[in-house]
Every structure is written in C-alpha cells, then in structure tokens.
Amino acid sequence: MVPDVSTGDRTRGLLSYLFGPGRRDEHTDPHIVAAFAMPGLTDPGRVPLDQHQAALTELADYLDQPVRLREQRLGKKVPQHVWHCPVRTAPGDRYLTDEEWAEVARRVVHATGIAEHGDDAACRWIAVRHAEDHIHIMATSVREDGRRPRNKGDGRRAQAECRRIEAELGLRRLKSGDGTAPKTPTSAERAKAQRQGRGTPVRQWLREHAYAAAAAARDEAEFFAVLTALGVKVRPRVGPETGQVTGYSLAAPGDTSSAGEPIFYSGSSLAPDLSLNRLRERFTPAPEETVVRVDRQADAGGSWRRADTELRTAHAFVIAATDGTAGEDVYAQVQAQAAAFAELLHNTAAAAPRQLRAELRAAAVAFGRANRSAIRAEHRAADALRQAGRALLTVPGSKDGDVVTAALVSAVFLLIALGEWHTQRGHQQQAAAARQALAHLRTAQQQAAQPRLAQLTDRTPNREEADRLAAVVQTVVPEHAQRILTDPAWPALATTLAQAESAGTPARRALSDLTGQRELATADHPAEVLLWRLHNHTADQISRRTSAATHRSAARRTPTTPGPGVVPGQPRHNDADHRRRTR
Fold first, then answer.
1. Beta 31-35 vs 82-88: how paired, if at all?
2. 191: Cβ–Cβ under 8 A, 6 or more apart, which residues?
3. Could you tell me the pTM of the whole model?
4. Domains of the chain (ranges, CATH numbers)
5. Which of 14, 33, 256, 446 lies 20 to 30 A from 364 at CA?
6. Residues 6 or more apart from 500 whose CB is under 8 A from it?
7. 472-484 pLDDT, tens per residue?
8. How confident is the model at residue 559 (pLDDT cuts 50, 70, 90)?
C-alpha cells in the first residue's frame, strides 16, 4: 500500500480532477467513502449531472471555510493549504470495499496529524474513490480553531501506518521508505510523456542524464558542460549578495509549458544527492590528494584492467566491513564505495561494447536507488574507484572482450557485497534495488563472456592434459575443486591454464595466486571466475614486461653527450680498432 503526500493551493481544481473523468477516462464512479463529517456533506459524485459543477463549488467552499477565516484574521493568504494523499494498493492485492477504504483513510489522517481521532477541531478532509485500487485523501490544512496542523513528517508517518494496515488486512507487505527516494513522476507528468511519445517522464529522464553527467565530470563546470552537450538546458541559480552559484535547474529539450517556456526542475527535486552541495562533495578533492593522471595514449585494455583491480579492492573492503563490527566512519566509507560504484556503472555503460550497453545502463539506473541511503558518504575514501571509472571514458572502446568481462565479473561481486551490506543493516529499499541491478549486470556479464567461453571450450586440451590440470586443481584448492571441475566453464579454464603454462606460468602457481579470494565460495560459476582472474593476471604480467622492455629500448636509443673532439652525428671508433685497420 503506497501513500504519496503532496500539497497545493487550489481546492476547487483538485476536486474537479477527483470527481471528473480523469485524463484518459480512467475514473469510474467517483464518490466520497469517508470524510470529517459525513452527514449533510454534498457528494458531487452522487448528484445529477446538471448540478455537478455547483456541487463542486459548494464542497470546495465548505472545505475552505477555516482557511478563509484564517486569511481574514491574518490579512494574508495561507500558502499551500491543500493537503493531498493518494493511497494505492500493490498490484495483485485483493479488492477492498468502500468500508475498508474508509477505515484506511481515517487511520492515515490520524497518523499524519491531519485529523487525529477524537479531535473536534481537526482539519476538514474527504476521501474520494474513483478506481478499484486506490483512494485520494484531500484536506484543507487549517484546523477549525484556526491553527495549522502539526503534521511534520507526514509522508514518513503515512508510510509507517500503511505498513501496519497491510499486515492487518492481509495485503502485500511493501518495504518501508527511509526518506532518500527521489520524487516520483506525477500522474500528470506520466500522461504528458505518453502524449509526447517519450519513453520515460521528463523528471526521470533528467535524473538519469544528471547522474550520467556527474559520473563523467571531474568538477562542477564539466558537469554543466556535459549536460549541455547532451541537449539539456542548464539554469544556474546565483546568490543575490555573493554572486556565487548556489544551485541549478535543468530542462529537457522540447519540454515546455503552455506559454512555450522550458519547464525547469531543480537538481534536489530530481534526487536528494543531485543537489549542487551534494555534488560538490564528490567533486572537491581532499587537500592531500594526489590525482592519478590518466595517460590518454594508454590502451583501453589497461583502463579496464585498472577498473577490475579497483573493483576487487572495493569488494575486499566492503566484505571486511560487513563481517566486522563497523563504526560510523566505516559506514561512511562503504557508502562512498557505493557512490563511486554507481558512477562506474554509468561510465561502464558508455564505454563497453555496444551490445552490452542496454543492460549496463539498466543496471546503473536500478543501482541509483541502492546508492541513496541516510548515510552520508566520505567520498575521498573511494577516489581510486571513481578515477578508475572515469578513466574508461578517456580511451577508445576496448576490442578485447576478455578484459571487459573480467571487470564485469568483479563488478558483480562488488554489487553482491553491497546488497548484503544493505540487507544486514535493514536498508530494504536499497537491498531490493541492488538485487534488481544485479540481474541486469549479470545478464551483461554473461553476454560478454559467452563468445570467448565458446572459443576456449573448442580448444580444450586432450584428455590426458585435462586430467593433469584437474589434479592440480584438486591439490591447490581442494575445498572448491568439486564445484570448479563440474562447472560448465571448466573446459575453458583448462584451456586458459594450459595457455598460461605455455607462457611460462605453471598451473599450480597460477591457481595459488588466484584462489585466496572469497568469491569462490559464493560464485555460481567458480571456474569462470578463475578464468577471468587468470586472464587479467596474465595480461598484467605481459603489460609489465612490455613496458619494461620499452623503457630498456628507449634507454639504449637515448643519445649521450659527445666527448671532446667528437663531431656530433659522426660514428665513434675504438682507437685500437682504428690502429688495426690502418696497419
């Protein structure tokens, strides 16, 4: 059961919507199921059609009476005096009768402080039903005694009451909110998106683009520049006294009001962590920070291997924090790893091979909810992971699917660890979002892995060689050997071990270097995990050897300062050789 509290200032306008046909004629039989005083109350849904408009006006005036009296007494308008709370059952829930919905309404207005039980001076309110699965509760938020209600935290209180109602009525138990969820698109915004043929409402579209821009940007100016390049209109908010930028608003291309003006949304209204102050926490480096400069001439494979390394480091940290007794400082550091991982997912979706991008983008969007929690991140604790994610955008896309797959395997394990972290701490919304993101990420990882696994499987060593390698596995990792050898990816791993031996790394040593990792105990496909770990390990060794050889070659080619009597550019001869040749 989902409540959604909002406020406005047009009583008559909201009543016209509630008792009207709806934007797509979806309202059926609108009528009042509960109210602050049912006897004698005009129900616009139960009057003849020719009296409908007059009944709406009469009801609006009646609900607004305490508001008008307060305005006369104070000599100014009461701001946002219309309180509105739709309450909707979850898909698949049973049908509720009018009497049951009436009880739901009375409990919600009591819990939120709009009209507590037994309070004769409470606010005036009604509950309207015009569909099977929800009601709309509306109230005018001035009490009969002229005071404003004490309804601070009404959204959270409505959520808590709905959790209790679900249990009592046998409805689907939804997860409690924690105040960190972004504002959902309104029904009007969803209807507008449908009319315009947009895939998602503008608010959601802007939020996704803002997160992607924040992930790619190193500072505030670059964040705005990326958004502008994506076609988003940016309107900074400048302080009148300081002249400094204090906030910003965004508008989507083509999204205009009836007057033809762009419709802007502030960053904080898109999501709590998209406010300018929260973004600056990510962008501002620590005073002692040494920024790792990205070599733009580096190969894309090196950037993906760097991302893989930092993902494994972050995974080890989150696992240690989950297993131990973590303090508040560790909480902030784990949250920082989650924030940096969220950025890396966005950058991975932009840098990965094209066929993987849809699933990776879906994973990044889903993980956005898992990344938002009540814990404030200590962002400097995860700068290495953040920089590794940004490095993916600085080089051309990698044609080596193996390094991409290896990084995605590490990302899967970090996402599992973050989901477990949230589960242990009772962060239900975040844990559910992590599971949703994991489904998309695993799909992308499997899509990336399949072509290479098929190639390696086709080149499996002969039976005798495979048995020898299996014996090595049983010796080095006896606790995991059975699962590794029965994994469908074992033939591909056997091929990779044989290739490592051909390159000079014995299988026993390769496995010893790689198996001291917790992932094997929880992996669905431990042989596949070892395969991609081994591939990256081998690639790192080759890269280091190549780099060392390049430096040695460059040193040999570096010219030395010629000695006295030597003409630059002319060959130097050994004096003894010269004498021998002249005899």
1. unpaired
2. 23, 24
3. 0.68
4. 2-169 (3.30.930), 187-283 (no CATH), 289-448 (no CATH), 459-552 (no CATH)
5. 256
6. 506, 507, 510, 534, 538
7. 989 988 888 898 8
8. low
